[in-house]
Amino acid sequence: MKKLKLAVIGAGARGFLSYMPYVQNHPNEAEIVAVAEPDAKRRDAFTKSFRLNENQVYLSWEQLLEQPKMCDALLICTQDRMHFEPTMQALRKGYHVLLEKPMSADPLECALMTEEATKQGLLLSICHVSRYTPFWRELKSLIANGRIGDVISIQHNENVGYLHYAHSFVRGNWRNSHLSSPMILAKSCHDMDLIRWLVDSECTRVSSFGSLSHFRLENAPPDSAERCTDGCAVESSCPYSAPRFYLQNLEDNPFARLIADPPTVDNRMKAIKTGPYGKCVYRTDNNVVDHQVVNMEFESGATVMFSMCGLTRDINRIVQIMGTKGELRGDLVKGEIDLFEFAGGVRTLVQASTGEGGHQGGDDGIMRQFLSDLREMRYENNLTSAEASLESHLMAFAAEQSRLRGGEVVDMRAFRSMTKPRE
């Protein structure tokens, strides 16, 4: 097995915590030869973990890409609006790239990156990790094997979870579309990708409705404060109390370890008192929607209704897929798929195995596939190639355009033409 050399741009939650465990657990498959990370603590932690020397450590992606080509591929795990430039430069320098989703907050940039990878004959794979989980792969297999006939309609619910939404999309890095990307991209581009994959047909029309309804200043309780620790009169009963949420045991709350480095109790308390994660959820600069629905029609005739809501008990995805010969109902967290076949009224309960690692095994799965694709020189038509991801990204962009224009129907053929790179 050829051992591949990788470098990482962006050693944060995704670049370090999500994808590096696979490399650490499979040292015969890949080795890390460099990292670019502006945050000193993250950079030092990554450097120590992979025993890099000072010549392998860079403060920015620009510094790393100024060097002669040093490895087979780059993992680019920067923030949403910092994907385009490093990806384009990496491709032009001859690197294969694994790029964190979403590709970009600009549809033209998504198209240009896809075009550049094809031009250079390189692999550009997007981190749509859900395609690699046992649950979604089992659903895809049941459809592909004809168990429910042709897909006629899908109802797909993304339950973000009220505390996850408050952490990431009210207080966190993805709270404001001008700083990151709209919710339909930042969170739900996974769902757009899964829908496109399961239907396996070109999307023809999209419409969408949604808004930021709850986490607004006018909904702040009387006698609340700018921060949870500023003597807020309702902090003890507020479901979004930062001290109560972030001072939990780290095993019970995976978000708590993300607000301070290292995540000691004292460091977390300091972050609550001084950083964004201690702000009142009704008093931040957030603007992304807390609920949204998207309606889609496909060339095959299938229709899809997707619903995302941040105000849910669980973090889960639930799906119902109706076909000409049967129906599938799935619960991601339980890993359960309920198959009902009309012929004979046969019901089968399928338990999808739970993969190891983050995203129900998807994080490990995409690393395994990316490295395999590189070894076998499969650079086109991959499961999560840029070509495949571009289509679902355009569906998300069209949905956001529809939402901002009062739910008008967007013709996808015209939309693709408008966002296509000019000669």
UniProtKB/TrEMBL annotation:
Segments forming domain Gfo/Idh/MocA-like oxidoreductase C-terminal: 140-334
Residue span, Gfo/Idh/MocA-like oxidoreductase N-terminal domain: 5-126
UniProt xrefs under SUPFAM superfamilies: Glyceraldehyde-3-phosphate dehydrogenase-like, C-terminal domain (SSF55347), NAD(P)-binding Rossmann-fold domains (SSF51735)
InterPro entries tied to this protein: Gfo/Idh/MocA-like_OxRdtase_C, Gfo/Idh/MocA-like_OxRdtase_N, Gfo/Idh/MocA_Oxidoreductases, NAD(P)-bd_dom_sf
Taxonomic superkingdom: Bacteria
Family of the protein in this entry: Belongs to the Gfo/Idh/MocA family.
Protein name stated in the entry: Gfo/Idh/MocA family protein
